[in-house]
Design goal:
Organism: Streptomyces paludis
Keywords: Signal
Strand content: 25-35%
Pfam families: SBP_bac_3
CATH topology of the largest domain: D-Maltodextrin-Binding Protein, domain 2
Mean pLDDT: 86
Protein name: ABC transporter substrate-binding protein
CATH class of the largest domain: Alpha Beta
Number of strands: 11
Radius of gyration: 19 Å
Largest sheet: 8 strands, mixed
Structural class: alpha/beta
Number of helices: 8
């Protein structure tokens, strides 16, 4: 009988381990009996700091996956741009931080995909700079991004487009984490900040009327759990644990708990197959035409 693999609390040190592992645990762990994961806990609803430590979709999910392997889960919470170096240096076993799957990152790590999301730009309430068209309306503006995240890549590519169009480039303000990017807009240092579509929904709900959703783009980005390049044992174990989690209904329950849209479900998307091992895919080129939504609160 399959042991329960539901999410279990929000402690930052461990979840209760399973009596017997449903999935054969990987070897060569950073700490015996423990799955050590790296995260940048500033990206709600996936990971953020709560009163008892990191919380969110990714945190609940990794605890469930660890339990199905008979392991405890232990977090290393660091800035986003330090996650891949920590994994490569074997300080962590996986990266569990809503990491976008890009061709550049796939040169450094392997991925187990689990969700599809898009990008948004949030502005101060009322969208005073009237940002709607991407990238045209970003010309001459200051946009805050998380350093090392996909938003920084997109904005860099959009600046190339603006230059080709003969328009002034935007100023890209690269900051350590998503929270800092949000605060840059809140304090008036930036005109907009980039975040994911689920992240934008969480921010708008938590901050009431402080921000306006100005534009949505790139609604085809896959995110995944990253493992060291060529670490087939870890990738196989994570994939098997994730497939069991999906089959148990735990994944769907977390989607509902964190109010994530159904079209973000990687396992029901017609473009991705039906299992965690169905392939990682990659994002479209940032220079492809972007769809933008009208501004609104």
């Amino acid at each position: 009988m399959m042991a329960a693999v539901s999410a279990c609390g929000s402690s930052d040190t461990a979840s209760s381990s399973a009596v017997a592992a449903d999935v054969t645990p990987p070897k060569n762990l950073a700490s015996s009996g423990t799955l050590t994961y790296g995260t940048a806990a500033s990206f709600p609803p996936f990971e953020s700091q709560g009163s008892d430590g990191p919380q969110g979709f990714d945190i609940d999910m990794i605890k469930a996956l660890s339990a199905s392997m008979g392991l405890k889960a232990k977090v290393l919470d660091i800035d986003f741009d330090g996650l891949i170096p920590a994994l490569s240096g074997k300080r962590t076993d996986v990266i569990n931080s809503a990491m976008y799957i890009t061709p550049e990152r796939e040169k450094k790590v392997d991925f187990v995909p689990y969700m599809i999301i898009g990008e948004t730009l949030l502005t101060p309430k009322g969208n005073p700079k009237k940002i709607a068209r991407i990238p045209e309306d970003l010309s001459g503006k200051t946009v805050a991004v998380t350093r090392g995240a996909i938003g920084e890549t997109y904005m860099t590519e959009y600046n190339k487009e603006l230059k080709q169009q003969g328009r002034a480039e935007m100023k890209i303000m690269s900051l350590p984490n998503n929270q800092d990017a949000m605060l840059a807009v809140q304090s008036g240092r930036a005109d907009a900040f980039d975040t994911s579509t689920p992240g934008a929904a969480a921010t708008l709900a938590a901050t009431k009327d402080r921000f306006t959703l100005a534009a949505t783009f790139k609604n085809e980005t896959r995110i995944g759990i990253a493992v060291r390049k060529g670490d087939t044992g870890m990738k196989t174990a994570i994939s098997a644990a994730l497939d069991r989690f999906v089959a148990s209904g735990g994944y769907a329950k977390l989607m509902a708990k964190y109010q994530l849209p159904e079209d973000s479900n990687y396992f029901t998307s017609s473009d991705t197959g039906t299992g965690a091992s169905a392939g990682t895919g990659s994002t479209a080129s940032p220079s492809a035409p972007a769809s933008s939504s009208a501004s609104g609160s």
